Amino acid sequence: MKLFVDFDNTIFDTHHKFLDAFFGVFENYGVSREIFEETLPHFSKTALQSGKCYSPERHIKIINKHTGKNISEDIFLQEMSEFLEKLENFVFEDFYEFVNQYNKGDLIILSYGEEKFQTQKIIGSGVEQFFTDTIITQGDKAIEIEKYMQNFSEESAVLIDDKLGYFESVKKLSIDTKTVHIVRGDNKCESGAFCDYHAKDLRNISALFQ
Predict the structure, then answer these.
(1) Are 70 and 103 found together in one domain?
(2) Whole-Å CA distances, 133 to 66, 121, 127, 185, 208
(3) 200 and 147, same structural domain?
C-alpha cells in the first residue's frame, strides 16, 4: 500500500501558524494585514483563471501594482527565502506519530502548488526525509497517482488530503484506491461517495486500514 500525503494543512499548519509568520515578512516591508489579505483573494482569482499557483514572487508583484508601492522584489525575496529555510515549528505534532507507523518506502508527498514555493516549504519543514518521493503538481492529483502506481500494479493507493475536491478523480482510477479526508479545526467534515474515511488528524490513520 502506497500512501500519498498532502502537505498544506495535512502535514503543515499552513493556514494558521505559518500564515501569521509568513505575513510577518510582508509586514517588514510596510504591507498591512489588510492589504495582505485583500490581495490574497485577488491572487486566487487570477490563479484560477491563469492556472498559475501562489508564490511570494507573484504576491509581491500584485501588492506593488495594487498599492503603488515600490518594494524591492529582490530584497524581499531574499528575506523570504531565509524565512522559508526553517519551518519545523509549523509541522503538526501528530505527523511524527504517523510516519513512525509506516515504512519510508510507502510514503509519498503529493502536494499541489507552485514548484519552487512548495519545494522551499517542504524542505524547510524538514519532513522530506521521512518520504521516499515528493511530487508537486499544478494539476489533478489522480494523474500523478496513476502514473506513480504503474510501477506498483499489485498495491493499493491511498490519498490523504484535507481537500475533498481531489477524491472523485482518484476513486475513478482503474486501480484500487482509498481516500482519507483530514478534518482539522474549522475544516468541515462532509460525507460523499468518493470519501472512504474521515480523520481529525494523522495520528490514527493506520487504524483505518486494519
Answers:
(1) no
(2) 39, 15, 11, 28, 23
(3) yes
